[in-house]
Amino acid sequence: LQDKKEFVISKQFLRSGTAIGALFREAQHAESKKDFIHKLAIAQKEAHETIFWLDLLYETEYLNEEQYYDLEKQVTELFKMISSSIITTKTAVRKVSN
Question: What is the pTM of this model?
Answer without folding.
Answer: 0.85
